[in-house]
Design brief:
heterodimer; A: mainly alpha; MetI-like fold; 0% strand; B: mainly alpha
Chain lengths: 242, 219
């Protein structure tokens, strides 16, 4: 789908939210839902940052780490990709306290989502690094670069471009997964929706607004990643032409 | 002791029964997703003016959380007089959500069919229906089976969401055991291990299936 269509969809979504908010039956829910949306965004942003760090670390550990580290990274990736995000969230929330480790729900949410998406991300990072042309690696060796130098200066900047679209998809997945944190008592957008629904039974206005808000957030993310991709590949095209 | 084996064995049969509900939800949900996805992809080709509408629809479904969609079906449908029980509403939501993803997979499959196949079908005066059934689908489906398999596993891992509307599947059962006995370690860990085992086994199956299909389609 073209970036213009996405922008048009975003504008329509925002206009519809705005138009609905002028009606009394919808307006009453807006402050609470917006409050929830702020928490959703906070968790999504922090979770994404953790996911990027974990993804890069796990990928590098699996590719270049010493055996124990490689093994650890593989176990991490398999466990977090093999079980569902909700199970991980509940495990951290309910089981860890029984081992005497009590973390607050917000940290659990960021940890679970970040670790979960990071595991998928590590495969993205690994794939992108492996997709860098062989000649680039050979040239680095010929120039007598050390491995960290090679990765930092030559390989990762090129792999970065290939990583943007799949990371974009993962960030969307993460944003959508934040709805799960409502099940561990955090009052995010989904939680607010459910709470208001139980209090007022105004199901249609509440869930219509919530769906539109999630849609708007996803679209902002998709459009942002498209722009980033466009910007990052300008340099690459120039590099190829030269 | 933190891990109690006796307790773990005691709850195992209860969890096993709940696992059947999870697997049922997965299979029905995926059957729905795979068939609805195929319908979307075929309609898109057969009736070109629907293309834009379907893209927007797919984008809408993929951009909003599954949990909210489950709530939406479960709470909003009764307002229109359609009362669905939790299992039906949940499976329907999962099926529709993944149909959006599957339709994109099918589309990729159809896009990979060379134009000549379509043109040859027209030259042979085959109807659109025959073209799809006998020419296009048999060639388009085998290469995308692994991708569909990945969505089957992804869908399976989403079934714990049904616990949010109190379907008695694996996660909900584990939660109930936890709240009754104040022991969460064993039920939650067992549920995690169950998903891990199922995912690893299905990943291995998909990989061997991929190998098989690649060998068959290589000419």
């Amino acid at each position: 789908m073209g970036i213009r269509t996405l922008v048009a969809m975003l504008v329509i979504a925002l206009v519809v939210i705005g138009a609905l908010a002028t009606q009394e039956s919808y307006r009453v829910f807006m402050p609470g839902l917006l409050q929830g949306a702020v928490l959703t965004i906070e968790i999504a942003v922090l979770g994404s940052l953790l996911a990027i760090v974990m993804g890069v670390l796990a990928a590098l550990a699996r590719m270049y780490g010493p055996a124990p580290l490689r093994w650890l990274a593989t176990v991490y990736v398999e466990i977090f990709r093999g079980t569902s995000a909700l199970v991980q969230l509940f495990w951290l929330f309910f089981v860890l306290p029984q081992f005497g480790v009590t973390i607050n729900a917000f940290v659990v949410a960021v940890l679970a989502l970040g670790l979960n998406v990071g595991a998928y991300g590590s495969e993205v990072v690994r794939g992108a690094i492996l997709s860098v042309a062989r000649g680039q690696w050979e040239a680095c060796t010929a120039l007598n670069m050390s491995r960290p130098q090679m990765l930092r200066r030559i390989i990762l900047p090129q792999a970065f471009v290939a990583m943007i679209p799949p990371w974009g998809n993962l960030f969307i997945e993460l944003l959508k997964s934040t709805a799960l944190v409502s099940l561990i008592t955090l009052s995010d957008l989904a939680f607010k929706a459910q709470q208001m629904n139980q209090n007022t039974f105004k199901t249609i206005p509440i869930f219509t607004l919530v769906l539109l808000m999630y849609l708007a957030m996803s679209l902002v993310l998709t459009i942002g990643m498209r722009l980033l991709e466009r910007r990052a590949s300008i340099g690459l095209a120039r590099g190829k032409a030269a | 002791m933190i891990w109690d084996w006796a307790f773990a064995f005691e709850i195992l049969p209860v969890l096993a029964r709940a696992a059947i509900v999870s697997i049922e939800a997965t299979l029905i949900g995926f059957a729905l997703a795979a068939s609805l996805g195929l319908v979307l992809a075929v309609v898109r080709i057969a009736v070109p003016w629907t293309g834009w509408t379907i893209s927007v629809l797919v984008e809408l479904i993929r951009s909003t959380p599954l949990l909210i969609q489950i709530f939406f079906l479960y709470f909003v449908f009764p307002k229109f007089g359609v009362v669905l029980d939790a299992f039906t509403a949940g499976v329907l939501a999962i099926g529709i959500h993944y149909a959006a993803y599957c339709s994109e997979v099918y589309r990729a499959g159809f896009d990979n069919i060379p134009r000549g196949q379509w043109e040859a079908s027209i030259a042979l005066n085959l109807s659109a229906w025959t073209t799809f059934r006998d020419i296009i689908i048999p060639q388009a489906i085998p290469p995308i089976v692994p991708a569909l398999g990945n969505y089957l596993v992804a869908l399976f891992k989403e079934t714990p969401l049904l616990s949010a509307i109190a379907v008695l599947e694996l996660m909900q059962t584990a939660k109930i055991i936890g709240s009754e006995t104040f022991r969460y370690t064993e039920p939650m860990t067992l549920v995690g291990l169950f998903f891990l085992a199922m995912s690893l086994v299905s990943a291995a199956l998909i990989r061997s299936l991929e190998g098989l299909l690649n060998r068959r389609t290589m000419r």
